[in-house]
Amino acid sequence: MGLRLIVQRVLATRSMSALSVAALVLLLAAVPAVAGTLAVDFSASANNFGETNEWNLGFEFQVNNPVTVLALGAYNSPDAGWGGTQNVGLWNSSGVLLASVEVTNSDTAIGNWYFNSITPIVLVAGQDYIVGAQGGTNFAGDVPVTVDPDITYLDDEYFYFDDASPLTPLTEPTSTEGYSSPSAAGWFGGNLEFGSASASAPEPGTFILLAAGFLGLGIHRKRK
Questions:
Q1: pLDDT digit string (tens) for 141-163?
Q2: What structural domains and CATH numbers belong to the chain?
Q3: Which of 27, 51, 194, 218 could form an SS bridge with 138, CB 3.0 to 4.6 Å?
Q4: What integer pLDDT is reported at residue 121 of this predicted model?
């Protein structure tokens, strides 16, 4: 049950002390909202080189501060249109697939990207990861790229399927053209939606406030 719903139901009893109300108000304010941001984004459309359904395209990055991945996505060129269903994966530096999801144009659109939610995963600071989208069009990100400050863009990553790119098996992109600058960041491709890692669970103080609120409620009821 959501925290706001709990508060609403408790308030509906109309039997709370002022202390309980104050504690729950503080509790509600203390729980941060998970607002998504993109790992990378473009200030303009990437160039489309055609060659659909032959690639897994993405990039390698290092995590500067812990982040929670909420969704995986794939790029959609507004000039060329969607390249069809794409299979997006996230790998660690050892090549272990941490998460994957298929993305279609019925999924959530954020700018020129489509995203599909995954079970949230916290990425560790100092570690390298690769994200890639398979089954899409060959887009060149040779336009200025905005990079989330919680990560460092390392280089482009791709895998070529030699004229045949099935959605499965999902293959990690491990080749690179050496594009390491956000001003010419390579091929896209996969992307990630981040939320704050600290927002994935309430802090201990949050539970103290919750306990105080319900303790005040219990004392009030006993006195009645």
A1: 656 788 999 999 999 999 988 76
A2: 1-31 (no CATH), 37-198 (2.60.120)
A3: 51
A4: 97
